């Protein structure tokens, strides 16, 4: 059988685990040798979190009874030996369902009551309120019991039209969108607002999150589903019925929620088995399927190759019975292959580039530091060799010269303090315009327009203007950080010339790339500010949900920009502290060496040997650093869709080398300030 989406995702998970292991080796090496400053430590932590913990969300979207749950069962849960998500006739998912895994939470089903819609708190806020959810334990050893527990997602209850209106499921102004009114005057509504399934399934443990949605155009659609979860999905699968094609309701969902650009978007034409006709030849049936695919592509205005005819029911049955022929007939494997190739390589490339660029930058930073240390060692060796045959008086003169050089060098602290003061002031200006308070102020301008009338005709224009202002803030942050870079280049050049530093300003940071994230948010949200959504937007509850979710999405972008700028500036200034500390240690070592030599001439040869050994250890560290970075680069360049080699235990010899270097470097890297070393 062909590789499945599950096997491809598993291969990506193995690649991520192997890359994380190599990155951990590099971080451990730097930590053991006291080479890890605060900025580098933060980068390692953030990058390892991305590799091991970053989620991959795939959303399944369709009208009711299009086969979403059956498709999820076929792709992800056929190994359980039965249906896990409810997919029987007449039983359809009534609330959004998230399937994922968090090792810190217990295995089970968490359900948020529909009554929470009456409260002001958003769904994102309820995620942090454990007591608000109803929790049901899932017995992993009992598939039937699990399936029964998961049937909670289809539960409904009847309420009065007044209660339905309060919950958002009934509107007197739009009777055509209301659910059917039962004989007793009651209306059927979902019992639950949202469901979260925490399950240690291998794919979910790899970071996959599956989002199963109810019909998006129902009047009671959860606002945060369309405003928050769907725009954040890395891939969206839109499911249609092969027997019906694109219905009016399907087309409304596509145009209102899915027609904009996204990382990956797929259309599955499900239930092709329903097109089988005993009075037609197989070729004629295939022609019908091909015409239906072409019609769907034409209606949705997408290329025909983006439409995948499948039979989720046939695929699930084939996988449960290990029927290779039935699986081929279901055409699911072709769809899974497209899903894998359209989503996973880009995912892998983004992670590989981020890890590779960061590791190369870290290597360059340490290489400069090693070069400075070896230069100082070379100066010491030259100085010590010049002492051979010198009298005690000559040694005393050299002691005085070292003390004078140290005193002169300490004059750089005033220059450094001035530079840091300017740097901090410039950075504060950058961070102010990226703060949450500034962002909230900008969004409040839009909120005033939304709350000004029942039909906020100027809302769309105001939102576009808001996005334009936010792009200007990012552009302004870019320009200000460029000014910081220019200031550091000039300051570093003077410090290098006057005090013998070897400071190098980091490469220019590019935060303009995050304007594309703003563009995506603008495209996803602008549809809710048109006439088709005006009646929803006029509802105070929806307006508040819109504002909360918009701020949440924008905050992610601005926090990412500010974090990148802050980390770049920390890295740029960290080398100043590193070189300052190393120069002070060097002065201390020189003074102590001369002092010992003055007391006992036999110390000269031993000190020469000691400095030579320290220089050799630094060279070994530089070689080991290059080896670790090369190993990481090799893993990052592997094809993530192919199964990665099994992780091997850490190389014992390399680990022994690290430990021996650590013990040897401890004396070389230890020491106090030059003032403490030289006394008065």
Map the helices and strands:
Blueprint: H1 5-32, H2 38-53, E1 56-61, H3 68-76, E2 97-100, E3 108-113, H4 123-126, E4 134-137, H5 143-150, E5 156-159, H6 161-167, E6 187-190, E7 192-198, H7 202-205, E8 208-212, H8 223-232, E9 235-241, H9 248-258, E10 265-270, H10 282-300, E11 307-309, H11 312-321, H12 324-330, H13 332-385, H14 392-409, H15 412-432, H16 436-450, H17 459-499, H18 515-525, H19 534-537, H20 540-599, H21 603-636, H22 652-669, H23 674-678
Helix pairs in contact: 1-2, 1-13, 1-21, 2-13, 2-20, 3-11, 8-20, 11-12, 13-20, 13-21, 14-20, 15-17, 15-20, 16-17, 16-20, 17-18, 18-20, 21-22
Architecture overview:
It is a single chain. The chain is an alpha/beta fold and 680 residues long. 61% of the residues lie in helices and 8% in strands. It has 23 helices and 11 strands. The chain has helices at 5-32, 38-53, 68-76, 123-126, 143-150, 161-167, 202-205, 223-232, 248-258, 282-300, 312-321, 324-330, 332-385, 392-409, 412-432, 436-450, 459-499, 515-525, 534-537, 540-599, 603-636, 652-669, 674-678, and strands at 56-61, 97-100, 108-113, 134-137, 156-159, 187-190, 192-198, 208-212, 235-241, 265-270, 307-309. The strands form 2 sheets. Strands 4-3-7-2-8-1-9-10-11 form a 9-stranded mixed sheet, sandwiched between helices. Strands 5-6 form a two-stranded antiparallel sheet. Helix 9 links the parallel strand 9 and strand 10. Residues 643-680 have low confidence and may be disordered.
């Amino acid at each position: 059988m062909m590789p499945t989406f599950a096997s491809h995702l598993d291969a990506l998970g193995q690649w991520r685990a192997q890359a994380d292991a190599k990155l951990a080796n590099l971080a451990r090496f730097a930590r053991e040798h006291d080479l890890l400053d605060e900025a580098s430590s933060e980068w390692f932590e953030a990058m390892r979190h991305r590799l091991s913990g970053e989620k991959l969300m795939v959303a399944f979207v369709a009208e009711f009874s299009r086969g979403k749950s059956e498709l999820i069962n076929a792709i992800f849960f056929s190994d359980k030996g039965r249906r896990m998500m409810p997919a029987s006739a007449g039983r359809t998912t009534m609330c959004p369902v998230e399937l994922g895994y968090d090792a810190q939470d217990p295995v089970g089903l968490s359900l948020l009551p529909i009554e929470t819609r009456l409260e002001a708190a958003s769904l994102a806020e309820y995620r942090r309120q454990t007591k608000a959810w109803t929790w049901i334990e899932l017995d992993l050893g009992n598939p039937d019991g699990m399936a029964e527990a998961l049937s909670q997602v289809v539960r409904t209850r009847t309420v009065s039209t007044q209660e339905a209106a309060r919950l958002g499921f009934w509107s007197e102004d739009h009777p055509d969108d209301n659910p059917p009114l039962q004989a007793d005057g009651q209306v059927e509504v979902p019992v639950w607002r949202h469901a979260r399934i925490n399950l240690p399934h291998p794919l979910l443990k790899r970071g996959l999150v599956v989002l199963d949605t109810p019909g998006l155009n129902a009047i009671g659609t959860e606002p945060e589903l369309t405003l928050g979860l769907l725009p954040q999905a890395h891939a969206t699968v839109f499911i249609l019925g092969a027997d019906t094609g694109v219905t009016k309701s399907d087309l409304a969902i596509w145009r209102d929620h899915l027609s904009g650009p996204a990382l990956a978007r797929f259309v599955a034409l499900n239930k092709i088995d329903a097109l089988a006709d005993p009075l037609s030849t197989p070729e004629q049936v295939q022609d019908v399927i091909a015409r239906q695919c072409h019609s769907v592509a034409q209606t949705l205005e997408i290329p025909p190759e983006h439409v995948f005819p499948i039979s989720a029911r046939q695929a699930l049955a084939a996988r449960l019975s290990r029927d290779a022929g039935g699986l081929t007939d279901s055409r699911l494997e072709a769809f899974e292959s497209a899903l894998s190739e359209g989503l996973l390589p880009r995912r892998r490339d983004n992670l590989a580039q981020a890890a590779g660029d960061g590791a190369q930058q870290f290597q360059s930073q340490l290489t400069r530091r090693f070069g400075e240390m070896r230069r100082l060692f070379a100066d010491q060796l030259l100085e010590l060799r010049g002492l051979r045959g010198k009298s005690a008086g000559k040694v005393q003169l050299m002691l005085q010269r070292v003390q004078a050089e140290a005193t002169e060098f300490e004059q750089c602290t005033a220059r450094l303090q001035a530079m840091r003061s300017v740097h901090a002031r410039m950075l504060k200006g950058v961070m102010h315009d990226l703060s949450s308070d500034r962002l909230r102020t900008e969004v409040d301008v839009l909120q005033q327009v939304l709350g000004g009338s029942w039909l906020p005709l100027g809302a769309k224009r105001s939102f576009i203007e808001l996005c334009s202002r936010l792009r200007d803030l990012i552009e302004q942050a870019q320009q200000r950080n460029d000014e910081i870079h220019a200031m550091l280049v000039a300051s570093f050049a003077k410090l290098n010339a006057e005090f013998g530093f070897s400071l190098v300003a980091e490469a220019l940071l590019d935060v303009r790339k995050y304007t594309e994230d703003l563009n995506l948010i603008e495209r996803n949200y602008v549809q809710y500010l048109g006439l088709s959504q005006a009646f929803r937007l006029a509802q105070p509850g929806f307006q508040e949900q819109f504002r909360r979710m918009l701020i949440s999405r924008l905050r992610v972008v601005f926090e990412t920009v500010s974090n990148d700028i802050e980390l770049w500036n920390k890295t740029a200034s960290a080398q100043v502290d590193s070189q300052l500390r190393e120069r002070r240690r060097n002065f201390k070592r020189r003074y102590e060496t001369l002092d010992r030599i003055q007391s006992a001439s036999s110390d000269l040869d031993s000190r020469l040997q000691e400095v030579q050994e320290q220089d050799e250890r630094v060279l070994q560290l530089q070689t080991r650093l290059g080896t670790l970075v090369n190993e990481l680069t090799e893993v990052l360049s592997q094809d993530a869709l192919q199964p990665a080699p099994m992780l091997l235990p850490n190389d014992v010899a390399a680990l022994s080398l690290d430990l021996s270097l650590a013990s040897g470097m401890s004396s070389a890297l230890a020491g106090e300030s030059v003032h403490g070393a030289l006394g008065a």
